[in-house]
Specification:
The model has no long low-confidence stretch (mean pLDDT 96). The strands form 4 sheets. Strands 8-7-13-14-15-12-16 form a 7-stranded mixed sheet. It has a 5-stranded parallel sheet with strand order 10-2-1-11-17, with helices on one face. A 3-stranded antiparallel sheet has the order 5-9-6. With 382 residues, the protein is of the alpha/beta class. The chain binds flavin-adenine dinucleotide (FAD) and uridine-5'-diphosphate. The site of uridine-5'-diphosphate has 13 residues, from helix 5.
Length: 382
């Protein structure tokens, strides 16, 4: 088989690059994925009870990047949805992230914005330099809220202490001195109106794209002739673990259907201190589906299983830096996405990286001589 560009991985990273190459440059693309579906971790489907669920855990789209939002809007309409989360603490459900309502609920107070600011200033621990996620939380909310809301959740989620995680992890969660209890404050937020899988199907509609599912790159690498490779799988696997296996955190997904219209008081309830799971998400809140039954998903973190979260620790980022040197030496190969770049990216960032990589590829292609360009086009129809 022959193509101009071989894309490994049909997640949002791979599909973004494939779509652009096929539709903008009109080159022939083959996308391979070892799974039996497209979409990577955003794949959703209707379960046996007809409820739309997310196979790899709940995904909510949010971004401040208008380019990414407009790009994805070519493939989907959106359902307006602003996510909110409650955290189960001391037998109460309190809003997460930390807001005025959270502080008042936990301390049994009736503070206003100014009083909350003054209160947290007194609670907060000061550091010369903030280097860890633990320090991020302590410097913003102080020890008590850290213990109740962050410490054990983080330990459960990552299997290591927040003091070992870099600042990026807990920095994802804001502290607000007002009543804005939304989980995200981004300009654009919502859910693809007909689901992520439908959106992804639209991205690969071009006749220039051929999809090969249930196909592992390792097994077909030598069988597909290509001029350029876009790789979105694990980088350690690509280099046969030359610098050792990179660790990932995984999750078990426990899906349950309940004979009731509504299961819980919010789309997501976090359990920082109890249970082996970190959160329960109820899909109907997000999708707006109306039906009698409802479906939920519990997330149970662990080390075994599929690679879902790259580790934001200094040690593993240093290990990955070695791989970066190898990546830079690979000719005509572009590494992109959460696995390949070993980065805790959200969906919007992955799409952004896909668009950036496409621009790099286009530039590289335009720099080829006319002869090389003509001969880089595939001769066969896919
Ligand atoms: P992936 O989606 O992992 O796709 C990579 C693909 O490559 C996979 O399909 C894999 O099968 C394939 N592949 C790997 N190796 C090979 C090989 N050798 N041969 C063939 N195929 C291969 N982001 C948000 O913005 N909002 C959220 O609410 C959100 N929630 C999340 C919840 C969970 C539980 C998780 C784990 C992530 C969440 N994310 C969320 C992040 C989001 O899932 C990722 O940013 C995005 O899906 C990553 O896309 P990707 O293409 O880089 O990787
Ligand atoms: N976090 C926490 N308590 C919570 C929610 C989040 O301690 O109730 C911390 C935890 O370390 C988590 C990080 O904040 O890994 C980022 O949370 P986010 O909701 O962004 O995690 P994701 O959805 O990516 O799993």
């Amino acid at each position: 088989m022959k193509c101009d560009v071989l894309v490994v991985g049909a997640g949002l990273a791979g599909l973004t690059v494939a779509e652009r190459i096929a539709n903008d440059m009109k080159l022939k693309v083959i996308v391979v994925d070892k799974r039996d579906h497209i979409g990577g971790n955003v794949y959703d489907f209707y379960n046996n009870d007809g409820i739309l669920i997310h196979k790899y855990g709940p995904h909510i789209f949010h971004t401040n990047d208008s380019e990414v939002y407009e790009y994805l809007s070519r493939f989907t309409e959106w359902r307006q949805f602003e996510h909110f989360v409650l955290s189960s603490v001391d037998g109460k459900l309190v809003p997460m992230p930390v807001t005025l309502d959270t502080v008042n609920a936990i301390y049994g107070t009736d503070m206003n914005e100014e009083e909350m600011k003054a209160f947290l200033e007194k609670e907060a621990v000061s550091f010369d330099e903030i280097k860890t996620s633990e320090q991020v939380a302590l410097s913003k909310v102080g020890p008590l809220l850290y213990e109740k809301l962050f410490k054990n959740y983080t330990k459960k989620q990552w299997g290591i202490d927040a003091s070992e995680l870099d600042t990026s992890v807990i920095s994802r969660i804001p502290v607000r001195f007002n009543h804005d209890t939304r989980y995200f404050a981004d300009t654009y937020q919502g859910m693809p109106l007909y689901g992520y899988t439908k959106m992804c199907e639209k991205m690969v509609e071009s006749k220039n794209i051929k999809l090969l599912l249930k196909t592992d790159y390792k097994e077909i690498a030598s069988e597909i002739q290509h001029r350029a490779l876009v790789y979105t799988g694990r980088t350690d696997e690509f280099f046969h673990n030359f610098y050792g296996k990179l660790p990932y955190r995984s999750l078990d997904f426990i899906f349950e259907t309940h004979d009731m219209e509504k299961f819980q008081e919010a789309p997501c309830v976090n359990y920082p201190n109890d249970n082996e799971y970190t959160r329960i998400t109820e899909f109907k809140w997000m999708t707006g589906q109306t039906c009698y039954k409802t479906a939920t998903c519990k997330l149970i973190p662990g080390d075994d299983g599929q690679a879902l979260y790259p580790f934001p620790t200094a040690e593993y980022q240093a290990q990955f830096a070695n791989y970066r040197k190898l990546m830079a030496k690979e000719k005509n190969t572009y590494f992109v996405g959460r696995l390949a770049e070993y980065k805790y990216y959200n969906m919007d960032k992955v799409v952004k990286r896909g668009l950036e990589v496409f621009e790099d590829m286009k530039k590289d292609y335009e720099e080829l001589s006319t002869y090389e360009r003509v001969h880089s086009l595939s001769e066969e129809e896919l």
